Amino acid sequence: MNSNIDLVLFGARGDLSARKLFPALYQLDRAGLLGDSVRIAGLAREAISSSEFIEKTHENLKKVVSKSAWDEAAWQRFSRRLTYIKVDFSQKKDFLALKGWLVEKRTVIYYMATPPSLYGSISKHLDAAGCVDSLSRIVLEKPIGHDLKSSRDVNSTVGEFFSERNIYRIDHYLGKETVQNLMALRFANRMINSQWDNTCIDHVQITAGEIVGIEGRWSYYDKVGQLRDMIQNHLLQLLCMVAMEPPNSLQADEIRAEKVKILRALSPIDRDNVLDQSVRGQYSAGWIDGQPVVGYMEEQGSESNNSDTETFVALKAYIDNWRWAGVPFYLRTGKRMKAKVTEVVITYKDHPHAIFPDKDSGAKNRLIIRLQPNEGIELEMFSKKQSLKERLSLEKRTLNLDFFDSSGESRIADAYERLFLEVMKGDQWLFVSREEIEASWRWCDTLIDAWTDKKVATKSYGAGTWGPSKADMLIEKDGRSWHGS
Ligand code: NDP
Questions:
Q1: Do residues 433 and 164 make contact, with C-beta atoms less than 8 angstroms apart?
Q2: What is the CA radius of gyration of the chain?
Q3: Ligand 1, atom 18, residue with closest C-alpha
Q4: Whose CA is closest to atom 1 on ligand 1?
Q5: What percentage of the chain has pLDDT greater than the value 90?
Q6: Strands (E), 190-311
Q7: Active-site residue set
Q8: pLDDT, tens only, 174-207
Q9: Residue 414 has what DSSP assignment?
Q10: Phi, psi for residue 221 in degrees, rounded to 5
Q11: Considering only Cβ atoms within 10 Å of each terminal Cβ, which end of the chain, N or C, has fewer?
Q12: Mind listing the domains of the chain with CATH numbers?
């Protein structure tokens, strides 16, 4: 890998940097995966020196990194790469300090861990200060816009200074081992891939449940809601990974082109079907892990007692193409759910003719792709129950592809470690293209318009449950049920 790389982290004193970015970079260094000459500059507007910044980074890493992963020698090496540059991102003149730090003919990666409203102006200031050349890359965190128009605006402004092949849009779900494994599972296993369509699959469920609530971000979240925060990016990316056709190769362009086709084939949820295919929810007070928690409107920082922002969404979506015609994709995501879980569950169809005893008639194979907790893949199969009393009845057995057990590693790499590596390699296969972002906003905008049109209000659900009862009805009226609820 090219080691002549400088990494510039905008927002180096923010939450994402502290919890994810610096820990990921430290882990890469510890694993020997950061080239010797890689340099890292943290940028923020706090008036601190480089040595103070390094000390604060040290304190933070000691808190965030597990004891077993702490290696003093690795930290010493890592700390020598770090510099702090004080920059107010809205001040063009401040970027000259950054220019002074850059060295010619090195690849610079600008990582935007800042409010998204700054992506455009930072790009402009970088260019004006002479910090952008054909080697420079920019990494954009989600969200990119809050609808199709605003995402186009961000993409166009950033695109004036960086070519598409140098723009890396993060959806950190794509950095997860299980999501990449989904490609291996589908495209390296003929027996799986040959059964991957509407002749064999009954339906797909994608669930992303969080136990946490708004975490002090009320005023931000209230303008966004769960559809924009989770469905537009993470859940639709997972749906693409499940549904896309085999790409011609593992090249980024080929993979991304297949994902765009799925997003464009998503059947609109509009004013005609919105009441039937979507549910919005908002949590009220309830119990999490035996502790009482307040409702959304009573959260710290709440600015309204009649907000209708959704903290939960359940959808039934269809993909209008040859492979998936008629197969429902049930998507569900919410805050203050009963459990923290992210999973994709593929349920296979019944056999065309039942020969086993009646009590086994509901036996359906299920493939469970779990992103958290315990990343892994399980295949539920049936075999003969070992018993002399019964003639031939079935027993469910689970084939478990537990990564943690089989990898021989003491930990599974965090998504951000993989994503940093790919940006440094210059490989965009785990990043979202402009076309994907815009296609997913187009679909979400139609749904949001339909909610407004049809005045679809949120339904209340108690914190610590799986959402409003209407979400159960959404799937149960089709004779199915949510996995694990
Ligand atoms: P924070 O608000 O914690 O951090 C943003 C940082 O940007 C702050 O340190 C802030 O500095 C700095 N900043 C803002 N304006 C300026 C300015 N004009 N000049 C200099 N510094 C400035 O946000 P997060 O770290 O949570 O999020 C960063 C990005 O990552 C956002 O786009 C977010 O949507 C995205 N993201 C975050 C996730 C997370 O888990 N935190 C998850 C997924 C995406 P100051 O403190 O001085 O205001």
A1: yes
A2: 24
A3: 89
A4: 14
A5: 88
A6: 201-209, 278-284, 286-288, 291-293
A7: 234
A8: 999 999 999 999 999 999 999 999 999 999 999 9
A9: P
A10: -65, -35
A11: N
A12: 5-141 (3.40.50.720), 174-414+433-476 (3.30.360.10)
